[in-house]
Amino acid sequence: MSLDIRRAEGLSAEALRLGMVAGFEGYAVPMAPTAEQFAFMMGQRGMVPDASWVAVEGDVVRAVWLVSIREGRGYLIASGTAAEWRGNGIARRMGEASIADLAARGVGTYWTEVLHGNNAARALYDRLGFTTAREFSWYDLTPSGDGLGEICAWGDVVAEAAACRDWEPSWQNSDASLAAVSDGITVVQLRDARGLVGYAAMVTASGTVAQIAVREDARRRGVARGLLARLGALSPKGALRLANVQSDDAGFAAAAAALGAVPDLGQTELRRTL
């Protein structure tokens, strides 16, 4: 039986979740989210069902190509094909359908990330016309020391956050993504008479730090260490993961090393003009 490639609208979240789980089986970082985790992930990244694609066999989703659209940009959240169907060009066909669809909608650019070492996926994205935009690093950290900062809402820091940053967060960690799941993140801030000194935002359930930044004049004073220690005390695991740190930020890399952060797998951010 061949697979039918169609839009994802009309399919249940559970059908899409199971298709994603099957599609990532056997990968270096398999993704098997619970229903709650899948809902959070799609909400955070902004999945649009009628811009997303699936390959179905009867009523069963065998491959997914899940897409978001925000402010004239498209983003591939996740793509994967069940093991028994890999090598048949299904992902390429979904990708081509998605590119044509986004271009018809007037979307200007298309973004995604690929794990370092996932050569098959990278080759597919190359064939689809994606090129490297940035490299990202991940770190694992068990914070120590005294915590700094008070717990606040994401809305309390978002207007001043960009002034503290040297680079834009990745799609999943963007201001819009954090606003979309604000009930599921923990934010701490430190202020002085000038305003926001520094802040950090963590996905509460996983202990993943989505954003951390310190105002330039307040750096190298232990602010980042204190903010991370505060989040570490609030993390359900006691440990933290720093996700999608821009790899060419030498200052961040040095600070992470000084804090005892351990580098883990990284990703390449990809971009395609439509």
UniProtKB/TrEMBL annotation:
Domain N-acetyltransferase: 3-155
Organism superkingdom: Bacteria
Keyword annotations from UniProtKB, A to Z: Acyltransferase, Transferase
Matching PROSITE patterns: GNAT (PS51186)
Keyword field contains NADP: no
Name of protein: Acetyltransferase
Lineage: Bacteria, Pseudomonadati, Pseudomonadota, Alphaproteobacteria, Rhodobacterales
